[in-house]
């Protein structure tokens, strides 16, 4: 019995995580699956006037208006190709941990595969790309490098204010209102 307790007290074994893989051009990227709410086919979007070119528009989903960004256009100034594997991926976006998560749509090319690995397999790649803070560490495998995209770092303050003008109310706050 003490041997079981000793094993429990040992440092925990890191769990493998699931990632959704996609491509921007020929490069591979990954989103942590816990950040993904749903994977949808590409849908028609209503454009947003005077928004940055990589803000693809909005669409109505389950009673909410959801903003959508084209990750290819954001990253390399080229819109995502309209392929059968191009998806609209709903993610849980949170500007900071004190706010409730909101839906944000991402247009992603070839978003059809997953990867299960240890998050620690992703390592810093030695560049400080302040223009793309959402591009995180990389992982090498037989197919080359795959880069982790951090959802909560996708939007700067000005675009966040355009797409999410008011912080969402917590459900407890809604109940307390007359």
From TrEMBL:
<dbReference type="InterPro" id="IPR039315">
    <property type="entry name" value="CheW"/>
</dbReference>
<feature type="domain" description="CheW-like">
    <location>
        <begin position="16"/>
        <end position="160"/>
    </location>
</feature>
<dbReference type="InterPro" id="IPR002545">
    <property type="entry name" value="CheW-lke_dom"/>
</dbReference>
<dbReference type="Pfam" id="PF01584">
    <property type="entry name" value="CheW"/>
</dbReference>
<dbReference type="InterPro" id="IPR036061">
    <property type="entry name" value="CheW-like_dom_sf"/>
</dbReference>
<dbReference type="GO" id="GO:0007165">
    <property type="term" value="P:signal transduction"/>
</dbReference>
<dbReference type="GO" id="GO:0005829">
    <property type="term" value="C:cytosol"/>
</dbReference>
<dbReference type="GO" id="GO:0006935">
    <property type="term" value="P:chemotaxis"/>
</dbReference>
<protein>
    <submittedName>
        <fullName>Chemotaxis protein CheW</fullName>
    </submittedName>
</protein>
């Amino acid at each position: 019995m003490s041997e079981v307790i000793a094993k429990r007290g040992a440092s925990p074994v890191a769990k493998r995580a699931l990632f959704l893989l996609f491509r921007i051009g020929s490069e591979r990227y990954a989103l942590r699956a816990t950040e993904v709410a749903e994977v949808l086919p590409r849908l028609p979007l209503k454009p947003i006037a005077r928004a940055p070119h990589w803000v693809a528009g909005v669409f109505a989903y389950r009673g909410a208006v959801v903003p959508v960004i084209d990750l290819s256009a954001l990253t390399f100034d080229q819109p995502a190709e309209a392929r059968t594997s191009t998806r609209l991926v709903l993610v849980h976006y949170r500007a900071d941990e004190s706010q409730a998560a909101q839906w944000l749509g991402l247009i992603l090319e070839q978003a059809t595969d997953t990867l299960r690995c240890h998050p620690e397999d992703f390592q810093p790649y030695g560049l400080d790309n302040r223009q793309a803070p959402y591009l995180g560490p990389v992982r090498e495998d037989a197919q080359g490098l795959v880069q982790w995209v951090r959802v909560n770092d996708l939007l700067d303050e000005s675009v966040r204010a355009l797409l999410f003008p008011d912080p969402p109310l917590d459900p407890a706050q809604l109940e307390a209102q007359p």
